[in-house]
Structure formats: structure tokens, C-alpha cells
Amino acid sequence: MEVEIDETKVSRRKYNVGRVTQTHKEWLVGGICRETGQVFLERVYVGTRTR
Question: Is the model's pLDDT at 40 over the cut of 60?
Fold first, then answer.
């Protein structure tokens, strides 16, 4: 089984104004299985992601 995994950082700003603080950042982790085409997405909040 071969799975591709990727991550991206998601942040929220209202009307594109203001700084993005650490409390408003999240990681979105996703993957796809090449054989079956199954996809998964998981939201990971700041502080729970291991570095």
C-alpha cells in the first residue's frame, strides 16, 4: 500500500486585516491511497503537533 501525505498551515483573518497570532493557526494534514483512491483530512490544532 502506497500513501501520499501532505500538510498545510491554515490561519484565519477577518477581512484580511490584522496579524495572525499563534492561537489562530491550525495544521491541515491529508493523504491519499494510490491503490484505492481513499482520501483523508485531519485538522491539527497548534500545540498538539509534534515537531
Answer: yes
Q: Which H, E and C letters describe 1-51, residue by residue?
A: CCEEEEEEEEECCHHHCCCCCHHHEEEEEEEEECCCCCEEEEEEECCCCCC
Look up residue 5 and give its three cell numbers.
501525505
pLDDT tens for 2-33 read 889 988 877 766 676 766 666 667 788 999 99
In a domain, 49, yes or no: no
Range(s) of the domain holding residue 13: 3-43
Residue 44, pLDDT above cutoff 90: no
- Cell numbers placing 30: 491529508
